[in-house]
Amino acid sequence: MHAYRTHTCGQMRREHVGQTVRLSGWVHRKRDHGNLLFVDLRDHYGITQCVLDTSSPLFATVEGFRPESVVTLTGRVVAREAETVNTKLPTGEIEVRIDEALLQSAADVLPFQVAQEEDYPEEMRLKYRFLDLRTERLHANIVLRSNVIASIRRRMIEQGFTEFQTPILTSSSPEGARDYLVPSRLHPGKFYALPQAPQQFKQLLMVSGFDRYFQIAPCFRDEDARADRSPGEFYQLDFEMSFVTQDDVFDAIEPVLAGVFREFARGRKVTEGRFPRIPYDEAMLKYGSDKPDLRNPLLIAEVTEVFAGSEFKVFAGIAASGGTVRAIAVPKVADRPRSFFDKLNAWAQGEGAPGLGYIVFEGEQAKGPIAKFLDAGRLAKLRELSGAGPGDAVFFVADKKHLPAAKFAGAARRRLGEELELIPADEFRFCWIVDFPMYELDEETGKVDFSHNPFSMPQGGLEALNTKDPLTIKAFQYDIVCNGVELSSGAIRNHLPEIMYRAFEIAGYTKTDVETRFGGMLNAFKFGAPPHGGSAPGIDRIVMLLADEPNIREVVAFPMTQGAVDLLMQAPNSVDPARLKELHIKHDLPPVKKKD
To answer: Is the pTM higher than 0.90?
Structure first.
């Protein structure tokens, strides 16, 4: 018999009854029922109930096993009585009568219980992540992650993609976040950067003649954490294709994503057919976001003309100044109590807005704090533009600047959808956001800058760059969105040097700047570059959605805290002065703040 196990703890079934087996694992739970001692033994594969009579000479030994100790138990498989069958466990029809018991590794007193799914403080969970990963939910999430990646890899290969690995030590690149820098010992005063994404390398692979590239790529960005973004590092399905249009990219990746989500959806619906394509401007108008949740049926409408020149002076003044008034029609809430509207108004004020104005349509009558300022013609126009009918309410957002109005209207749409429970939890709704602006205006500096990926091809090419207002130029840029979560950004790339020089010139980069920062890729483009494009859906976010987890740290094996600290490995930490000297580095630390 094997020294540790003949079977796993998830393997035992009724057909094993009568066999003598050996199992090894962790003591998940113990229960003393007077004359019998039950031990639930757990390993990667599952749980098997083991039982020992209190008269056994092994009783004192087994009773002394602390929870989470690693033990080896040998015994005979027996069928459970019908009334004791546990239908929640695959192994629930049998149990193992213990004949031998060996302690492999004793566990100290636990900082928290692994067998109990309780809401322990996150810092404790991250400090003892190896224990946290033993819990059923976390363990299942990490297994799911592995299976998702395996499925993605298989599907990409079936689509004709070839897997590559690109460098980890590279040069700094303007991807929109801070780089993690690595000092060079051999080149004093110079630094490598960890890649924010394999952007330039995957484009160089296309220039090198490889047709379809993909990689489960680690990416590193020194940026603050969010619920859907890890600080420091993350993984993405990075891919690139040669001789493709935007439609070709969509056709290649949609079956991969839809297939993966259907495989792991557990009965939840997934978008059928082609993903809807929504232009950026339309998304910001109808949904108030460039990552809309299409499960929410509420839509936003532009109703500025209703209030232009009206007696409602606040909105009329905004309209006169070139601002915007947005409306959200909400069906069948006219009979809601006043407290419903007051609660939403308080929410808006808590978000920094003056409030959330509204009009309620009861039959042909309009009521609410704004209704009295609009005549019958304006109210009819409001119903036409917003789609509101009898029994509906219309909520308003207004601002002198269009983007803040759009974003707050989007937040109000989301809040209303959640408050009214209009968002189904059993669906995955995908869409593409397309036609992003090539440039945006930095309000602080007044300068034109890239709004998305600087390596994207502008729609209209060089002629558009030379003849159009930069803020009106669209790019062949696109995002994949699912349930309000941005899974990736992508683009058809700018592969022509003359267009790249001009595109960067508009954003304030000189020709020398471009050649210094992107010389490798730019030089390659001068030797024949195919039209190419791609994208990079985030692995962490895909798994987060499939696992139905609200926080990305729940699907990463060893995440950092929001403050980018690894509590388990105590990183970042100090480095020996001799090592710093070897790297030609001296500290220039900020002064320590005195405590009051």
So the answer is: yes
